[in-house]
Amino acid sequence: MPTLFSRRTSEPDLPIIDKSRIPAHIAIIMDGNGRWAKGRHLPRLLGHRAGITSVREAVKTAGELGIKVLTLYAFSAENWTRPTTEVQALMRLLQEYVVRELPELQKKRVRLRAIGRLEALPAGAQKKLTQAIEATSQNKGLTLTLALNYGGRQEIVDACNRALTDGHTSIDEKTLSNYLYAPDCPEPDLLIRTSGEMRLSNFLLWECAYTELYVTKTYWPDFRKRHLYEAVAEYQKRERRFGGL
Ligand code: IPE
Ligand code: IPE
Ligand code: MG
């Protein structure tokens, strides 16, 4: 007989998910950290910090659901325009995350990757990130891709330039795709944005041509297992047509 106490602490009712139709790749624009903090009269940095719990939970849940790739937009190419103190805090947080989380990523057999102009990240963060990527490179579980100093337009420009360097004089879709930051990665099936904003903010512009979009008003630091289940359940109600009938 469950007591009142055990009912309170048990997992809330999760939406039913069809395990045979799990999206292979989910991308998330983790937004609303600042507003989450502001609503609590806290500095913005504490919102970013609180968001780490949500990252942990999203990684865990994605692994449990059998999602192959989870791409998280952690820092955009345009986020450098924020105050230096915030940018520095975000870079410190990134470094802290990859160091602290590494044992757990290993335990869950998560393979860490990163997309973006990584060479512009501060040396310390870059080093720790590379170490974590290398340490997890043979893992066969979830692929966790962090988008860092990432911009969709920049990615397309970088792809074109690398194709030119390799001697291509004209380009088609297949060639361009092969020069993207993660060419072997399937395109996202589902893109989630938290905090209610209805825009892409330069995220995966090429890759999201036929991705299903899902926006929740929930701020990223409040995003939990249940929210990811809700997004996947909604995705499973969609009819993907890819321009056909
Ligand atoms: C998302 O939260 C985190 C990053 C962009 C790095 P924000 O910092 O954009 O939070 P809001 O949108 O100001 O609430
Ligand atoms: C997008 O959020 C970038 C990340 C979540 C890392 P922003 O908060 O930077 O986007 P805008 O400025 O509201 O479009
Ligand atoms: Mg924002």
Structure description:
It is built from eight helices and six strands; from the N terminus they run αβααβαβαβααββα. A six-stranded parallel beta sheet has the order 3-4-2-1-5-6, sandwiched between helices. The protein is α/β, with parallel strands linked by helices and 245 residues long. Residues 1-10 have low confidence and may be disordered. α3 (44-65) packs parallel to α4 (84-107) and α4 runs parallel beside α5 (123-135). The structure holds 3-methylbut-3-enyl trihydrogen diphosphate (2 copies) and magnesium ion. One 3-methylbut-3-enyl trihydrogen diphosphate is lined by residues 30-35, 75, 79, 90, 195.
How many H/I helical runs? 8
- Write down the domain tally: 1
* Helix/sheet category: alpha/beta
**Which parts are unreliable, with pLDDT below 50 for 5 consecutive residues or more?**
1-10
Structure ligands: 3-methylbut-3-enyl trihydrogen diphosphate, magnesium ion
Question: For the CA atoms, what is the radius of gyration?
Answer: 19 Å
User: What number is the mean pLDDT?
Assistant: 96
Level of helix content?
40-55%
Q: Can you tell me the CATH class?
A: Alpha Beta
CATH 4th-level superfamily: Decaprenyl diphosphate synthase-like
Q: How large is the share of residues in beta strands? A: 5-15%
Biggest beta sheet summary: 6 strands, parallel
Side by side, the strands of the main sheet go 3-4-2-1-5-6
CATH fold title: Undecaprenyl pyrophosphate synthetase
Shape: globular
Identify the CATH architecture: 3-Layer(aba) Sandwich
